[in-house]
């Protein structure tokens, strides 16, 4: 940026300042290059993309007048104390297609708000609930979900605490504002601006803005082949855990797909603060003693319950009951590993993006409530 010289002989001083600024810019550029090359050599491709992105942010900060001593370490996205999540302004919302784009043979979308469950298959969890599809007695589940979390995150840490990734990254949403979808639309896309990666970005931005250092992996683990996607995502997560052993929470973010017998698509919806959002559902796996080995499933269940309790307590109607079932989903890798489905293929993208923000805010509340040092 050019500065106008004043009338007080400031030319030499400004020349020195310009030289210093040039040296700073060259230093930041070299630092970013080293980070990117190092990530490419020792880490997965997404880690390299993260390092490059953060280096660019450092460069932008340097251009705005920050000193080298004030530049953030490469893994940190540090928010201002007490600031709102970056996604809170909802600038992430995208334009949707109007009814003028609706084809004559468009499919039908039906909206539904799924309630919390009751009865013998359900266990109360604050304002939410857990659907028990296992042989574990309800009394044991009820006792377990009241136990403390098996981990503690470190707030405003230079080390990553959370990893968000997507086993089925190409899952997508409808792009129409109206309740219709184009025939043949499988609601899958490799465009990261319209698939699960877009939802993951909103979640990661919200967590980072709250001081919870979060990495977001955008690997398309289900492309070009859907088969083997869980093996692919397992390898990715293992690489991150090896490179960043500080990670406590691993969230595999998906969307559901609910259809009626005649092919209409269901859109799980709710209204939060006057805006429609997709409902979300946590899935927590359970060890069955043979084919599904999750020896620490009870610890993951505590985390699922805490998150469910916080989301439904803060945003009534946002969640469907937690599904506790004999599923694996690589949840053996950490005691904070969960799968969350954000809406379904009947929801429009904006409903899912907003739900991603709300789910992340619920996670922030759950983890803060679990930390006596910062609980209200």
Q: On the 0-100 scale, what is the average pLDDT?
A: 83
Terminal residue distance: 45 Å
| Helix percent band | 25-40%
Query: So how many helices?
Result: 7
Uncertain segments are 1-87
The tally of beta strands, per DSSP, is 12
Radius of gyration: 23 Å
Biggest sheet statistics: 8 strands, mixed
Write the element-wise H/E pattern from the N-terminal end onward: HHEEEHEEHEHEEEEHEEH
So what's the overall shape? globular
Percent of sequence in beta strands: 15-25%
Strand order of the largest sheet: 2-3-11-10-12-7-4-6
Structural class: alpha/beta
What does it look like?
Residues 1-87 have low confidence and may be disordered. β2 (122-125) and β3 form a beta hairpin. The protein has helices spanning 11-42, 45-63, 138-144, 196-209, 229-243, 297-314, 349-369, and strands at residues 107-112, 122-125, 128-132, 162-165, 180-181, 214-216, 249-256, 265-272, 275-278, 280-285, 322-325, 337-344. It contains seven helices and twelve strands. By secondary structure, the protein is α/β, with parallel strands linked by helices. α1 runs antiparallel to α2 and α6 (297-314) crosses α7 (349-369). The strands form two sheets. Strands 2-3-11-10-12-7-4-6 form an eight-stranded mixed beta sheet, with helices on both faces. Strands 5-1-8-9 form a four-stranded mixed beta sheet.
Itemize the secondary structure elements and their pairings.
Blueprint (H helix, E strand, L loop, with lengths): L10 H32 L2 H19 L43 E6 L9 E4 L2 E5 L5 H7 L17 E4 L14 E2 L14 H14 L4 E3 L12 H15 L5 E8 L8 E8 L2 E4 L1 E6 L11 H18 L7 E4 L11 E8 L4 H21 L7
Parallel strand pairs: 1-8, 3-11, 4-6, 4-7, 7-12, 10-11
Antiparallel strand pairs: 1-5, 2-3, 8-9, 10-12
Helix pairs in contact: 1-2, 4-7, 6-7
